[in-house]
Design goal:
Two copies of one chain form a homodimer. By secondary structure, chain A is α/β, with parallel strands linked by helices. Chain A is 45% helix and 12% strand. In chain A, the strands form two sheets. In chain A, strands 1-5-6-7-8-9-10-11 form an eight-stranded parallel sheet. At the A-B interface, helix 9, helix 11, helix 12, helix 14 and helix 15 of A face helix 9, helix 11, helix 12, helix 14 and helix 15 of B.
C-alpha cells in the first residue's frame, strides 16, 4: 500500500479532444454529435434508445419534441481548461485522462491507425501543457490490421505521459476472449501498459422491459447494463485462460469491477459445479481462482458511489489495488452549478472515507497513493 | 435481530413434486424432462443452449454425442426422503421449500389455476409429513385469468405451511413493473405472504459471446445472467414505484439480491443524475431511496458463496434481513458422493461465519433465527 502524501489522483476521467468531436459530428449513426437549432450545446447521442428519439425528431421536425436526445456536449467534454478547473475545484492533483466510449470502435479499417495516432498525440500534448498534473490512457485502433494495431502499441509506449490503454469490451468484434487478441495483450503486458477496461455497449435493450425508455430515463442501461458488460467481459477473459496465458497483463476495471467483487463467489461456485468444465479437466488443483486473479492482475477503480460496494471491492482485490475516480465529465449535477462541486466526487470520496476512515493510510492510498505508485505518475518517470 | 437458539433454516431449497415432473416429461419445448436410452437419470433441460443440443441430438441420434444436454433429474429433485436426508446431513432444522424455476410460467391459461392448486396441495402435504421441519413458498398461476390468480392467493394463504410465494421475473409476460400486477402485490401484502423473487430467464444468449456454449459450460448464464435478471426485475419495480404503492409488500431476493447491494450506490447516482427523472419531478426530497427500500421491504438470502458479497448484502439490508439458503438440489458435488456434504452448504455457511463470526448472534440470526422470526416458522403458528 502506497501513501505518497495526500495527493488525490483521478484515474477515471474522460476527454473528447477537438478532432474526436469533429469525427463524431460527421457521423450519421450512433455514436454521433448533433446540433439542434435553438439548443445551447450540441448533443452527444450514444445509446440505441437515444438513436430512436433522434429518428423520431428527424421525421417530425425538432419542434415536435420538447426534449432533445442524448446529453449536452458542454465544455466539460472537450475543454482542457475546464478539466483543470474541475480538478482544482475538487482538489484533484493528478488526472489520468482517457478518451470516452466508444473510442474508435466505429472507425473504418483504413483510417483507424491514423485516427488513433492523432488522438493519442492530442492526449500527449494536453499532458505536456500541464506538467505533473496529467497522464493518459491511450486509445488503440482496434479496427486496423493486426500489424498496425501492434505498431500502435509501440507508438503509444513512446509517448511520455501514456500509462496504458483504455479498452472497450468488443475487442476485434467478438469480445476480449478472442484468441486473436493474445498478441495485443502480450504486447501491452511486455511494455508495462495497463488496460483500463471500460463498458459502452451495455445489454440488449429488450432486457429493460417495455416501460424503460419512456419512464426510467437512462437509469437501467447505465446503472446495470454498464457494470454487467464489464463483468461479462472480464469473466470471459478469465474462462478463456487469458490471465494465465499473459500473467504480466494488468487490468484496471471501471466501476469497481462492474459486479465482479460481489459475484466472484458465485462464479467460483458455478465453475467447480460445472459438469462440462470438470469433464474437460479445467477445474483441477492448479486452476488460479477468480479471487487470485482479482488480487494478482486486476485493479479496480473506486467509482461506485457507496461504501457498501467499495468495501466489497477492497475485500476482493485488496486496499492496494483500488484507485479513486470521478467519471467526469459524465453525470454532471442537474440541480446545482456545474462549475461547483459534483456528486461524483462527493459520493465517491465519502465512500472511501466511510470504508477506510478519513485521513487513514488506506484512504490516502485509494485516493491517490496507489495510482501514483502503480502507474508511476511522476513527471520524470 | 432474532436469535431463536441455534436452529438452521434453509429458505432457498427447491422440490419437484411428482405431478410437476410428469408435466415436464410431457413437454416438447423447454422447460422439459427427457429420458435417454442408457442414461441412469432423465435430464432436465431448461436453458436455450441446452435446447439447441437437444435439437442436434434429435437430428443425429443420441449415439452421436457423448454428452447429454441439461442436468440429471436425480432423486434430489423429487424425493422428499432425499430432501430430509440432505437436511439431516447438513444439520438443517427447517427448510422452506419451493417449486424451482420456471414454475408454472409455461402452463396454458385454462390449466394454470388447477395445476397451481394441485402443486400447492402437494407442497402442503409434504410439509404435513414432517411437522416442524418443512414450510413452503407457494406457486402462483400467473397465466390464469386475473380473478383466478387472486383466488389462488386466497387459497394458498389458507394452507397451514405456506409462508409466501415464489415468483419469477416475467410476471404476466411483461415483467414485474407491470401495473396489472399491483392487485396481486396488494393481495400478497395484505395476507402477509412474502414474495421470494427468483431468476430463471437470465440474459439473451448473445451477450455471452461465441465461445460460451462450447467452452464455458453454464458458468456465464448461471453466475452472471441469473443475478442480473433478479437485479433488473427489482430495479424495474423500484423505478415503477411498486414499493411505495404497496408499502407492506415484502420481498426476499434470491442470491443475496443478485447484484443489488453492490450496485445500489450506482443506481442511486444514476437516478439523481438522470435528466428525464429530474424533469419529471421523480427525484424530489420525498423519494424513498433504493437504500431505504433495501432496509424496509427487502430481505436477502445468503446464497452467495463468499463473505465478500455477503458482507455487502448485510451492509445493504441489515443483519436482521439476511437468511441462509442452499439452492438444493442444484449444484450437486461433482467429485464427491452426493449423499455427503455439498459445497453449497459449506461455502455459504463459511461465508456467514467469516462475515459475522462463528457462533455470534449475527451468525445465529442469519443461519436461522431471522427466518424463524420473519416467516413465523412455528408449527402452531
Amino acid at each position: 500500500m502506497a501513501s505518497s502524501g495526500s495527493r488525490v489522483v483521478d484515474i477515471h476521467t474522460h476527454m473528447y479532444p477537438p478532432a474526436y468531436v469533429e469525427l463524431l459530428e460527421s457521423r450519421q449513426t450512433i455514436p454521433l454529435i448533433r446540433r439542434f437549432a435553438g439548443a445551447k450545446d450540441p448533443r452527444y447521442i450514444i445509446l440505441p434508445a437515444e438513436a430512436e428519439s433522434l429518428e423520431k425528431i428527424s421525421q417530425a421536425g425538432a419542434a415536435a419534441t420538447t426534449q432533445l436526445p442524448g446529453r449536452p456536449v458542454t465544455t466539460h467534454y472537450s475543454s482542457l481548461q475546464q478539466k483543470i478547473h474541475f480538478m482544482d475545484t475538487h482538489k484533484i492533483d493528478i488526472s489520468v485522462i482517457s478518451l470516452a466510449n466508444p473510442w474508435l470502435d466505429f472507425v473504418a479499417e483504413a483510417e483507424a491507425a491514423e485516427t488513433a495516432r492523432s488522438v493519442n498525440r492530442e492526449f500527449e500534448s494536453m499532458c505536456l501543457e500541464h506538467p505533473g498534473r496529467l497522464f493518459f490512457f491511450a486509445t488503440l485502433p482496434l479496427s486496423a490490421p493486426a500489424e498496425e494495431l501492434l505498431a500502435a502499441i509501440d507508438f503509444v509506449r513512446g509517448l511520455k505521459h501514456c500509462r496504458g490503454v483504455i479498452l472497450g469490451t468488443s475487442g476485434l468484434g467478438q469480445g476480449l476472449d478472442d484468441r486473436r487478441l493474445i498478441p495485443v495483450f502480450k504486447a501491452l503486458a511486455k511494455n508495462g501498459l495497463m488496460i483500463f477496461l471500460h463498458p459502452h455497449y451495455g445489454l440488449p435493450s429488450e432486457v429493460w422491459g417495455p416501460r424503460a425508455t419512456e419512464e426510467y430515463g437512462h437509469v437501467l442501461p447505465l446503472a446495470l447494463g454498464f457494470p454487467l458488460e464489464t463483468t461479462i467481459a472480464v469473466a470471459r477473459m478469465y474462462l478463456a485462460g487469458v490471465f494465465d496465458e499473459v500473467p504480466e497483463l494488468k487490468m484496471l476495471l471501471a466501476h469497481s469491477g462492474g459486479t465482479l467483487p460481489f459475484l466472484a463467489g458465485r462464479i467460483e461456485s458455478c465453475i467447480v459445479h460445472d459438469g462440462h468444465l470438470v469433464r474437460e479437466g479445467k477445474v483441477g488443483p492448479k486452476r488460479r481462482t477468480v479471487w487470485q486473479v482479482l488480487k494478482e492482475q486486476i485493479y479496480l477503480d473506486a467509482v461506485i458511489y457507496s461504501e457498501v460496494g467499495l468495501k466489497a471491492a477492497i475485500d476482493a482485490s485488496g486496499v492496494d489495488r483500488l484507485m479513486f475516480g470521478t467519471d467526469h465529465p459524465f453525470f454532471p449535477p442537474l440541480t446545482s452549478d456545474e462549475q461547483g462541486e459534483w456528486e461524483s466526487m462527493k459520493w465517491n470520496k465519502a465512500a472511501v472515507e466511510k470504508a477506510l476512515g478519513e485521513g487513514s493510510q488506506g484512504t490516502l492510498a485509494v485516493m491517490g497513493g496507489n495510482a501514483i505508485e502503480v502507474l508511476q505518475l511522476k513527471e520524470d518517470a
